[in-house]
Amino acid sequence: MTEATPRVTAPYLESFLHRTVRILGKVIQLRGDQATVDSGGQINVILSRDSHFVPNHFFEVVGKVQNDLSVRVLASTDFGTDVDFKTYEMVVDVTHRHKEIFYGGDA
Question: What is the pLDDT of residue 97?
Answer without folding.
Answer: 83
